[in-house]
Amino acid sequence: MELTPTAPKVRQVLAFLLVRCGKLVQVGELIDELWGDEPPASAMTTLQTYIYKLRKDVLERCTSATLHTRVSGYLLDVSAERGDLLRFERLAHEGRTALDEGDAARAADRLCEALALWRGPALADVSAGEILSAHVTRLEEERLRTLELRITADLELGRHRQLISELKMLVSEHPLNERFHSHLMTALHRSGRRYEALEVYQGLRRMLIDELGMEPSAAVQQLHLNLLNSDAESRDEGAPAPVVRGRFETLLVPAQLPPDTSDFVGREEILRDVRRHLVRPQGENTAARAVSISGMPGVGKTALALRAGHADRAEFPDGQLYADLRGAAERPTDPHEILEGFARAIGVPAAEIPDNLQERSKLFRTWSMGRRVLVVLDDAHSVSQVAPLLPASPNCAVIITTQRGLYSLPGVRHVELDVMSTRNAMALIEAVSGRRFTADELGAAERVARLAGRLPLAVRAVGSRLAAMQTWPVEKLAAQLESLPRRLDLLSFAELDVRARLASGYRRLDAGDRSALRLISLLPPPDFSATTAARLIGNGTEEVEAQLIRLAGCHLLSVSMGAGGEIRYRLHELVRVFARERLDEELLEPARDRPEASTAAAADHARVVREGVRPVRENGRPVWESVGERADCGHEHRDPHVIRAPEPPARRARPVNGVVKALGNG
After folding, report:
1. Residue 280 in 3-state DSSP?
2. Which of 76, 282, 513, 587 lies in disulfide reach of 509, CB 3.0 to 4.6 Å?
C-alpha cells in the first residue's frame, strides 16, 4: 500500500526524519531545511501542521514506524528490517567486515544485497533543502563506496571478465574516480587485455592533467608499473586471482563532526570568509587549506567552526575528522592520542597503528593524500600540538580553534572573533529562550545583552535561564544582573558556565600574569595604558607591558591605538568581573586565617576598590596613592596623597605592604 504523502513539504519532512531515523531532529533543523535563512513568521505553526498531516495520513496506517515528540524536536523510530537505509547500512557494514576478514564470497553476497535496495538516486522525488541535500550527497557517496567494495570482492573471486562492461560504464559516469579506473585496468589485464589496461591508464592520466593539473595517485601509478613489468598476459578464467588492495582502499569514511548549532546567529561575513578560504581553488598551492579561529573564552569559536564545517561537508566526501585538543585544560591532549583516534576512525586495525608520534603522523598524511578530507581541531594549545595533525593533500582543509592564536603556523588564514553585536545578542536570547520580545521588553532585553557582555556563552546562559523560567519577566533578570555582586552566578546555567570557562584560561597563565590581571581589574573602564598599569602593579613599564601583551595574546585583553599613537588596553566587562572576583578571594582569603589582620585587610581592600587608590609606604609610614588615569599625565606631585611621576626602575622601592604584598606573586 502506497502511503507516501503527495504534498511536497510533507514529503520533505518525512524524508528528513527518515534519513535521521532513530535520532532526534531539532525543530530548528526542520525549519532551516524547509525555508532556509528566511522562514516565515508562521514557520512553527506550519511545521506543526505538516507533522499532524504526517501522523494522520502516513504513520497511523504504518505499523513499522513511530514518531515521538520531544521537548526540542521529533524522533522517528523505524523497524530495522523495514527501513531501507538501516538495512543498507547494516549489510554494507557486514560486507566490509567480511572483506577485511578475507571472506570475499560472503562480502560479495552482502554488498550485492545492500546495493539491490537502491532503486534510483537518493530522494529523487523529494525537493531537498540545504541540510537534506548534504544527506543526499552522503548517501550517494556511501553507495559508490559500497559498489567499489563489491567490485573488489568480485575481483578476488576471479570474476574479472564479467566486470569489464560494468566498469567501463562506471568509468564513463565517474571519470575522476581513480578506483574505478584501477579496477578496470586490473580486470582487463587478467582477461589477457594488458594493452587496453595500459590505454585506460594513459586516458586517466591525460584527463587528470588537463582537468586538475595533477598526476594519478601513487597507488594507480604503482599499478601501472606492475602492468608494464608483468610477463603474464592472461590468467585462467575460472581461477580466483588474489587482488593486492591498496592499504587504505577499504577503510571507513569518518564523519566525526559534532552536531551543528541550529540557533546559530550572526557572524555572516566571517562565516563567508572562512568558507571561501576552505573551498578556494588551489592553483599552484600544494598544501592543505587551514583557518585558525581565535578569541576569548566563550566567544563562539567552536560554534563558528562547526557551522562552517557542516555547511561545506559535501566538499569533503572522503570524511570529516574532529578532535578536542583541550588547550585550556591542565594537560592538553597529546597529538599521539589524537592520531590513534584518527587511525581508528578510518578503520586502521589496532595492530597496524604505529607506536610513535612521527610514524602515526606519516600514516595519517599517507591516508589523506589524494583525498578530500576536513579536519577540525578544537581548542588548540600550541603549534607543536597541531603540526602532526595536519593532512598533506591540497584537497584537504583544516579548521583550528584556539584561545591564544597560532600565528607562527605557516600558511594559515587567521580569524579573530569578537563579541556579538547587541542586535545579534538579543536575537540569540530570543532563539535560545523561545520568546519573542515585545516592544515594551526590548529595553530590558538590550540591558541583559549588555550585562552579558554580548559574549555568546553568557548570552546562551541567560537565554537558557529564561527558557527554564518562562514566567520570569526579562526586566527582572536585567535588574538581578545589575544588582547582584557576583554577576557571573547568573551567567551560569547547567553546562553553560562563563566563570568556569574564564577560569580554565586563567589557570594557564603564569603567577605574575595572574597577579597583573587581578590588579588591572581595579582600573576604571573603558581602557588604560601600560604606564597606568605599571603604577598600579609596582613594576617597570616595560615589564608590565610585556605582561599586557601576553594577556592580549590569550585574548583576555584587547588592544587599540589611542590618540597620539598611544597603545591602549581594554578588559572585556566579564573578564573584569571575573578578575575582580579572583582579587577578592585571593586578597582576603589568606587574612581569614589571621583574625587580627582580617578587619584591616578588608578595610584596605574596600578603599582600593571604592576610591581607586593603593597603599604604599613613604619614610616608614603608610600613604594612599591614586591609581587613576591621571597617572598618564606625567606631572610630578609632592603631596603623598596624590599621584607622582614614576621613579627610574633602579631607584624605585617596591611596596612592602598593601595590594602587591597581600597578593604575593600568585
Report:
1. coil
2. 513
Helix (H, G, I), strand (E, B) or coil at 290: strand
Q: What is the pLDDT of residues 479-492, one digit of tens each?
A: 888 887 778 888 88
CB 614 within 8 A of CB 587: no
What's the confidence (pLDDT) of residue 613?
53
Q: How far does the chain reach from its first CA to its final CA, in angstroms? A: 74
Q: For cell 543526499, what's the residue?
A: 136
Q: Long-range contacts: 226-232, Cβ < 8 Å, 24+?
A: 227/185, 227/189, 227/194, 227/197, 227/198, 227/201, 228/198, 230/189, 230/194
Distance CA 546, CA 530 (A): 9
- How many Cα neighbours within 13 Å face the side chain of 94? 16
Q: Is the pLDDT of residue 48 over 50?
A: yes
Between the alpha carbon of residue 155 and those of residues 171, 188, 233, 444, the distances in Å are 16, 11, 17, 70
Neighbours of 302 (CB within 10 A): 17
Q: Across-strand partners of 293?
A: 401, 415
User: Distance between CA 65 and CA 82 in Å, rounded?
Assistant: 9
User: How far apart (Å, rounded) are the C-alpha atoms in residues 215 and 210?
Assistant: 10
Rounded to whole angstroms, the Cα distance separating 89 from 575 reads 49
Cβ atoms of 198 and 249 closer than 8 Å: no
Cα separation, 263 vs 426, in Å, equals 12
Beta strands 557-561 and 567-571, pairing class: antiparallel
What are the grid coordinates assigned to 247, written together? Answer: 592499504
Torsion of CA 619, 620, 621, 622, to 10 degrees: 100
Measured CA distances, 231 to 190, 194, 197, 234, 460 (Å)? 12, 10, 14, 9, 69
> What sign for the dihedral angle of Cα 125, 131, 134, 135?
negative
CB 181 within 8 A of CB 220: yes
Which of 299, 308, 301, 302 minimizes the C-alpha distance to 271? 308
Q: Write down the pLDDT at residue 610.
A: 46
Distance (Å, whole) CA 397 – CA 375 = 6
Nearest of 617, 610, 590, 611 to residue 601 by alpha carbon: 590
Tell me how far apart the alpha carbons of residues 442 and 422 are, in angstroms, rounded to a whole number.
11
- Is 0.70 topped by the overall pTM? no
Cα–Cα distance measured from residue 145 to residue 89, given in angstroms and rounded to the nearest whole number: 12
Which pLDDT value is given to residue 594?
42
Residue 175 cell numbers, joined: 571519470
DSSP 480: H
What φ, ψ does residue 37 adopt, rounded to 5°?
Answer: -80, -5
DSSP 177-219: -HHHHHHHHHHHHHTT-HHHHHHHHHHHHHHHHHHHS-PPPHH
The burial of 601, by beta-carbon neighbours within 10 Å (0-12 exposed, 13-18 middle, 19 or more buried), is given as: middle
- For 368, the grid coordinates are 589523506
Determine the pLDDT at residue 20. Answer: 80
CA distances from 416 to 331, 400, 643 (A): 25, 12, 37
Q: What share of the chain is helix, strand, coil (3-state, %, to 5)?
A: 55, 10, 35
With beta carbons less than 8 A apart as the criterion, state whether 517 and 579 touch: yes
Q: Cell 511536497 belongs to which residue?
A: 8
Mean pLDDT on 233-246: 42
Place 550 in a pLDDT band, splitting at 50, 70 and 90.
confident
Neighbours of 473 (CB within 10 A): 13
DSSP helix/strand/coil, 305: helix
CA distance 627 to 528: 11
pLDDT recorded at residue 3: 62
